[in-house]
Amino acid sequence: MDRFDAMTVFVRVVEAGSLSAAARLGPASLTSVSRHLAALEERLGTQLLRRTTRRLALTDEGQLFYQRAKAILGEVDEVEHALSAGRSEPSGTLRIAAPGLIGRYRIAPLLPRFLARHPAVDVDLVLVERAVDLVEENFHLAVRVGRQPDSSLVARKLAEVHMLTCAAPAYLERRGTPQSPEALADHDCLIFSESAAPVEWRFSVDGERLPVRVTGRIRANSLDAVVAAAIDGGGIVRAPSWQVAAEIAAGRLQTVLDDYQPPATPVYALFDHARLLSTKIRTFVDYLVEQWAGRDL
User: 45: domain range?
Assistant: First the structure.
């Protein structure tokens, strides 16, 4: 059994919805399709599909194999396209995992220009706060914030994130300006969080990290919402510099605790060593570096 052919037939069956529909797509006959699937399951030692009189359903093992097989076939198609075209033009679907804020505000707005440059590429952007498993979950690359532990993944630094603590001048006039991180206990802090768990803001004192638990009467899972509340005098907010730079320049917000701000946090693109030669990955990472060069995230 040719493993590549069997993989192709299996993916075709899953996407067509039945063996007969896959056979009609050609070039294999129904008998050949059935033989390929049986041989593949025998080789793997597990059932990939549950067959009933009405439909086919993937087993858990079948779902995993389908995701991997589709990714492998996509990479092969990309390489063949590049070689046959005599150039390294990227093509195929690029599946990216990124944190919600950076994905919404700093990656999504860049996608139209990238796709205009590379019309043979599609992008699947998934916003997720956890660290995804690139191989298991079939992602081509992940954008992550913070120092990355040693791993088998390739890590390329893209930019840095600077967090600023600020409030409206009217609020500071009314409540006073905090002179140390601990003084935040006497202020209304505007909490951006996806959960109801306690929140800490991290500062730096004499080169040491100082976590400070903050509380307030306004909590939201939208950074836009808490920044808007800060502009209206609702309290002190902590946000990425790009989110509040225009408001600070216009005088609607004013930074506080500048002497205690921690060092910038790096942002990385991570991808598997096996995909070092993928044109679409390298092209997109280069594009992010180009767009983010010299800019605060």
Answer: 3-82
Which token pair is 281?
A: 């990955």
Q: Find, among 285, 287, 289, 288, the residue nearest to 275 by Cα.
A: 285
Can you tell me the distance from the alpha carbon of 179 to that of 162, in angstroms, rounded to the nearest whole number?
20
User: Residue 218, exposed/middle/buried by CB under 10 A (0-12, 13-18, 19+)?
Assistant: middle
Among 62-66, 81-85, 235-239, the range scoring the smallest mean pLDDT is: 81-85
pLDDT tens track for 175-201: 999 999 999 999 999 999 878 889 999
Domain boundary among 82, 104, 125: 82
Residue 98 — pLDDT band, cuts 50, 70, 90? very high
Tell me phi and psi for residue 26, to 5 degrees: 70, 170
User: Are 274 and 156 members of one domain?
Assistant: yes
